[in-house]
């Protein structure tokens, strides 16, 4: 094993203990014998001294996590070192940080080691995290295994190109084949592209998650937050509509509304949101497993009721101002009348007692 190009001080026989080394893509993470794990953990920590060590998302587990890294998975190599596995015949399988890290589910820009100590078991178990974005060949006849680094999301899109595409171009530059023509572009626009005259008031979509319903339920609010973050919208715009069990997984329904007082999305924004989901560029923490976009709809703007219309608000404002002005005038008029009533008035020639005259006093 190499970290950042440096060979770790591990006896190769460590990987032959008990059941040897098992590659199982059905297991989520990787589990190493104690000696190998301690050396790997120490090497990683020494290479990321600029990052802050933080607790893991689940207090029940002593995860090794770091914050302060970039948020984009494609740029993780700027913060974390490379990791290589070297086989007995000298062949080397080089991995990027995404092959040994998982996203912290509570801290943005934080990642945790997805490689753990396999208890006291000397068996080495390499799970699905090790082969992320990797095509794996299992040659049982010749007892060989092969790895080809690729971009699985891009590969999936290319496999869905129109049926008249004759071949796929190589991805990643690690495999070449002579005479392989490039795939032709699809003749039709993707279904999530919107015509220019369409107004999108809000978006509905369903995603399936590989995590089962009982495990997902406590983390639903976190899922909403991550969906908003990955789609570049405010969390107030994302509304969770429904969560149901679907076989061994879960089905989650969301709606997304325009920001603030806006009545509709721009076509560019609406297309961008669905494209990120359809093309699997949304990166959710491993807590939620893998996801697939099951269904989506662009809905027209909601019709406002009469009391929601702007002119109604203006009219009501004017009415309130007039009522306040009339109330103020009424109060002033009443006060003035009371002041006048308090001044005594005696008409000339009245029968009241005469007032005694007094001489003017000299100044």
TrEMBL record:
PANTHER family: ASPARTYL PROTEASES, OS07G0592200 PROTEIN. Gene3D superfamilies: Acid Proteases. GO terms for biological process: proteolysis. The chain crosses the membrane at residues 311-335. GO terms for molecular function: aspartic-type endopeptidase activity. Residues 1-148 form the Peptidase A1 domain. Keywords: Membrane, Transmembrane, Transmembrane helix. This is Peptidase A1 domain-containing protein. Belongs to the peptidase A1 family. SUPFAM superfamilies: Acid proteases (SSF50630). The keyword Manganese does not apply. InterPro entries: ALE2_N, Aspartic_peptidase_A1, PEPTIDASE_A1, Peptidase_aspartic_dom_sf, TAXi_C.
């Amino acid at each position: 094993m190499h970290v950042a190009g440096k060979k770790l001080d591990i006896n190769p026989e460590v990987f032959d203990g008990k059941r040897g080394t098992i590659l199982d893509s059905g297991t989520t993470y990787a589990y190493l014998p104690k000696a190998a794990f301690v050396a790997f953990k120490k090497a990683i920590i020494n290479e990321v001294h600029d990052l802050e060590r933080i607790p893991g998302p689940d207090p029940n587990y002593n995860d090794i996590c770091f914050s302060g890294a970039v948020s984009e998975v494609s740029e993780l190599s700027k913060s974390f070192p490379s990791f290589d596995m070297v086989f007995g015949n000298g062949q080397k399988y080089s991995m990027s940080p995404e092959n040994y890290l998982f996203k912290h589910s509570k801290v943005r820009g934080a990642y945790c080691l997805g490689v753990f100590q396999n208890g006291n078991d000397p068996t080495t178990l390499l799970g699905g995290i090790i082969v992320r974005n990797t095509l794996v060949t299992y040659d049982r006849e010749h007892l060989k295994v092969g790895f080809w680094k690729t971009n699985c999301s891009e590969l999936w899109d290319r496999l869905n190109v129109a049926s008249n595409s004759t071949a796929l171009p190589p991805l990643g530059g690690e495999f070449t084949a002579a005479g392989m023509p490039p795939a032709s572009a699809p003749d039709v626009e993707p279904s999530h592209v919107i015509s220019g005259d369409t107004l999108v008031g809000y978006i509905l979509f369903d995603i399936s998650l590989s995590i089962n319903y009982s495990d997902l339920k406590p983390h639903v609010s976190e899922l909403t937050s991550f969906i908003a973050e990955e789609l570049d919208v405010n969390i107030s715009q994302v509304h969770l509509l429904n969560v149901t069990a679907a076989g061994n997984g879960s089905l989650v329904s969301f709606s997304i509304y325009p920001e603030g007082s806006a009545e509709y999305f721009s076509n560019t924004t609406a297309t961008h949101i669905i494209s990120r989901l359809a093309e699997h560029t949304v990166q959710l923490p491993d807590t939620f497993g893998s996801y697939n976009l099951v269904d989506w709809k662009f809905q027209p703007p909601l019709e406002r009721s009469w009391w929601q219309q702007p002119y109604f608000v203006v009219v009501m404002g004017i009415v309130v101002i007039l009522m306040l002005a009339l109330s103020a005038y009424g109060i002033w008029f009443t006060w003035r009348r009371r002041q006048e009533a308090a001044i005594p008035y005696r008409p000339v020639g009245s029968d009241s007692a005469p007032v005694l005259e007094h001489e003017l006093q000299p100044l």
